[in-house]
Amino acid sequence: MRPKAWMFAIHLGFFCAAAGAALGAHVLAAGQAQSMARKSPVMEPVPALTPWADAHAHFDEKDVAGGIRSALAARGRENTPMIFLLMSPDTFDHPGHYEAEIILPEAKKYPGKIAVVGGGGSLNAMIIQSAATGDAGPAVLTKFKERAEQLLREGVAGFGEMTAEHFDGNTPYQHAPADHPLFLLLADIAAEHGVPIDLHMEAVPQDIPLPAGLKSPPNPPRLHANIAAFERLLAHNPRAKIIWAHAGFDNTGSRTPELNRRLLAAHPNLYMELKADPLAKGPNYPLDADGKIKADWLALIQEYPDRFVIGSDQHYPEPKDPVQRWQEVVLLLNQLPAGIREKIGTRNIAHIYGKSAGAAFHAANN
Ligand SMILES: [Zn+2]
Ligand SMILES: [Zn+2]
Question: Does position 8 have pLDDT exceeding 50, yes or no?
Fold first, then answer.
């Protein structure tokens, strides 16, 4: 149905003040229309043609109940039966860091609809700290394992958002080797408990200077190669499912369809989360200027339909942007053949989260 819905859903050059207010009607903020022209695409919210679980979203940690309410309200609008809320990858030094305990009691009221992926504010912080100090001794390993198992007992569906390379933004610049002993240990814990690891890692095949457009400080002047270490992590425990977040959101220019393909071919335990940020399009963006999926991305997804999920990186409540991240990635999803859309939308999530959230997801939506 509506095979070219995307063509009508995107309108470049106008700023829409209330895109969601009236279906099919644009309300232009007259004064802003000129100044925002060229900067902001306008997209009327178009739900996905078939249901999809959002494997990667965030919430306002200062208003957890409001974040959950907003995510629940979005489910119908997006055709997203289940939303996974992740902790931001953070450090102990950053005063804003938080962990799954702040959201689990509320989230547990909505099994099959809201799932919590934890570790970003504690396990990730332990890894970044250990990488900085060089202390990955027995005491650190024990403490890390206990914390990971505590989070699982409390009800997290997986570990995330972890990071091995993350630029400065809402959280500080973060780096740790992807094959750091604590990442390897986490892979073993994840495999043992049948839960995945959701990893944010800017792609750096070789050491490079910081890409243009990024500031140093706070980011370092040079980035260290990380793909070989990532492959060692993937190979360390083939039963550990590792989701590489943000395919389609590339800040180094190296996260090409070709690199994704090579790693998918080499590592059956690797999964990719598709993200398309309409307000921060970078290199290797999966959609062209008309919003149409690019041929090389389509070919890759068609080659590995069992290995992709959608992870919009949407924040709830939705920021006051003219277009939301979920809208752009749904634009992509809606262009995929129905069978592939169903796999990427729901079936792969159920497989990846089989033991933790997969069963609840299935029960709530069938
Ligand atoms: Zn991320
Ligand atoms: Zn994220």
Answer: no
Q: In the chain, what are the domain boundaries?
A: 1-43, 45-365
| Sign of torsion over alpha carbons 78, 203, 196, 126 | negative
Distance between CA 104 and CA 73 in Å, rounded? 18
Reported as a pLDDT band with limits 50, 70 and 90, residue 323 is very high
Q: Is 16 helix (H, G, I), strand (E, B) or coil?
A: strand
Rounded distance from Cα 141 to ligand 2 centre (Å) = 26
The domain made up of 45-365 is a member of CATH 2.40.128.20: no
* pTM metric for this prediction: 0.88
Cα 257 to chain center, whole Å? 17
Q: What does the DSSP 8-state code read for residue 294?
A: P
Kindly identify the ligand whose nearest atom is closest to the C-alpha of 87: 2
What's the rounded Cα separation, in Å, for the pair 163 and 207? 18
Q: In this structure, are residues 115 and 84 in contact, taking their beta carbons and an 8 Å threshold?
A: yes
CA distance from start to end of the chain: 23
Q: How far is the CA of 57 from the centre of ligand 2 (A)?
A: 6
Half-sphere exposure of 323 (CA within 13 A, CB side): 28
Taking the C-alpha atoms of residue 54 and residue 154, their distance in angstroms, rounded to an integer, is: 22
Cα dist from 201 to 70, 162, 171, 172, whole Å: 28, 8, 14, 14
pLDDT band at 33 (very low <50, low <70, confident <90, very high): very low
Residue 206 CB-density burial (10 A; 0-12 exposed, 13-18 middle, 19+ buried) = exposed
Q: Which ligand is nearest to the CA of 325?
A: 2
Angle of helix 138-154 relative to helix 123-133, nearest 10 degrees?
170
Q: Is 281 left (phi over 0), alpha (psi -120 to 50) or beta?
A: beta
Is residue 334 over pLDDT 80? yes
